[in-house]
User: Fold these one by one.
Assistant:
Number 1:
Amino acid sequence: MGTKKRCLISREAIAQRVAELAQQIGRDYAGRDLVMIGVLKGVFIFMADLVRALPFAVEVDFVRLCSYGAGTTTSGEVHITKDVELPLKDRDVLIVEDIVDTGLTLAFLKQHLAGHRPRSLKICCFIDKKERREVEVPLDYVGFPVEQGFLVGYGLDCGEQSRTLPEIFVIEPE
Ligand code: IMP
């Protein structure tokens, strides 16, 4: 059986929500020493849009974690394949993630980054996919809550395919 993609979130809706998130983050972190840490690779498009919509400049860094194989199922184990490089001690750190599913990746990352003793540590994720949440992780900023389905586009991939599509699509059986 093949699959098809159905557009779930349009470019316009994405742009509007990114602007709202940037405004909210801009208000909450005004005058603070904000470092944004993006979780590669999926976040690269969202993060690029978000930082350019902020009312002030921020420092950015990235981590790369590996938990999924090439397909759509999680292995449950998380490894760091690229760690953070900027100093985080006593700074305001905001983790930026593309999508949260089981929560395992973020729970692991939050604990890892907390070890650097930041002044504050919060999470911004673009898509909150609640259907398979296994561990509770407080999400401080959420772009869109989504009930179910495997999503691609706007940085999200399925086995490295469809990452560069400008809209978000849900993959459905044909
Ligand atoms: P979690 O650890 O289960 O929360 O998974 C988080 C990671 O799984 C994300 O950073 C994505 O890389 C990947 N992921 C989870 N759901 C999707 C999806 O619907 N589309 C693409 N990637 C996903």
Note: The radius of gyration is 16 Å.
Number 2:
Amino acid sequence: MKNYTRVADITNLNELVQSAIELKKEPYALQALGKNKTLVMLFFNPSLRTRLSTEKAALHLGMHVITMNISSDGWILEFEDGSIMENTAAEHVKEAAQVVSQYADVIAVRAFAQLKNQQDDYEEKVIKAFIKYASVPILSLESATGHPLQALADAITIKEHLSSPKPKVVLTWAPHPKALPQAVANSFVEMMQKMDVELVITHPKGYELSPDIVKESRVEYDQDKAFEQADFVYAKNWSAFESYGKVLSVDRNWTVTAAKMEKTNSAKFMHCLPVRRNVVVEDAVLDSDYSVVIDQANNRTYAAQVVLSKILGA
Ligand code: AN0
Ligand code: CP
């Protein structure tokens, strides 16, 4: 594996998930693989899980890790080609990516969507610039339009909690006071399309994800109907794609409640975290036995570890 910046970079998902489950049993099995190799992680945005789980994954593989909050501690970067840099940006990504490559064997980047201009975000300028100008592999820690490590952790979690050969997996939009990216939802949809599941996406009208992501997947505007017989319910807020970056609704009728979960086939509840309690999902659901959100967070380590191991040539 050269880079891992999109779900589409996975060639054999079953094998990858199986290897992650093996690594979970024996986390130090590939300890020699990363000896004398350095992972540099650059964060343009906050993180709890991604930062700690990816560092832990690298340590399991024997790597060194250098982490930088680049937006607060680094020079402001320019991404436009040919720009006259007389404003705030002090350094171009052309130099920055090449420079970081001198210190790193793998560069991991977190750069969220700006949510101002659909085309700018969906062109993936930041992650693509790192791929273009760095001389080492690039790992996405959530880019403008995708969160592929989260989606891989979600695939591992679903595999571990499978109760039927072809489960019904529901991705439900849920309310949130702030405009959030579509990245987690996009990568989850792409991941489910690679798996043997019955995927149903449910959201209020106006929250349609990109047609390039949804493709032939079923969209059901009635959340109650979507939940019927579900084996997994994955909640996530995202801002509108069409009216780009807008919060069109904060309708609490879409909050995931214990009463709604009763309509399912004893579904497991999933969320990538961080989650706003009693806005996205009720306490009663998050605190229940059927919530697997902590398993998902734990699996972030093994998702990152299996991907790093493939990048290192395992
Ligand atoms: C981010 C998002 O929705 O993309 C990160 C999720 C992993 N969430 C928030 O900013 C709350
Ligand atoms: N799920 C996830 O990516 O969490 P963080 O934003 O805390 O890294």
Note: Residues 162-291 form a domain with the Rossmann fold fold (CATH 3.40.50.1370).
